[in-house]
């Protein structure tokens, strides 16, 4: 069974290399602004029948034992993704409230340059 985690705890544990922070929103939304340190693994990709966990582990340099902290906009999509990852043996956490509960800086892509913007 997947677990729930607060956004602050997920960021802290990710920063301390105790897991991987994963944004499950679409690539387009991810590029418009995401939490620093987060990688993008869209929900549609996770839910795809051809989802290849070994390829994901290799792409993001994670091991099956390493937890992943999933966030979306509100927390509902990340719960579904966490359930799916848990079913294939990944210890997944869903961030309660999603990025809406995050009050820090967001990285965003603009003209192929990464910049920092403040969320309100």
Automatic annotation (TrEMBL):
Domain Rhodanese: 15-110
Listed CDD domains: RHOD (cd00158)
SUPFAM superfamilies attached to this UniProt entry: Rhodanese/Cell cycle control phosphatase (SSF52821)
Annotated protein name in UniProt: Rhodanese-like domain-containing protein
Superkingdom of source: Bacteria
């Amino acid at each position: 069974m997947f677990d729930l985690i607060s956004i602050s705890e997920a960021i802290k544990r990710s920063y301390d290399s105790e897991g991987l922070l994963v944004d499950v929103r679409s690539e387009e939304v991810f590029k418009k602004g995401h939490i620093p340190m987060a990688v993008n693994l869209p929900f549609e990709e996770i839910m795809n029948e051809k989802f290849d966990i070994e390829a994901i582990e290799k792409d993001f340099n994670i091991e099956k034992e390493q937890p992943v902290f999933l966030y979306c906009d509100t927390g509902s999509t990340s719960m579904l993704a966490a359930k799916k990852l848990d079913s294939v043996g990944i210890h997944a956490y869903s961030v309660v409230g999603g990025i809406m509960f995050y009050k820090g800086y967001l990285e965003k892509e603009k003209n192929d340059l990464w910049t920092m913007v403040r969320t309100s």
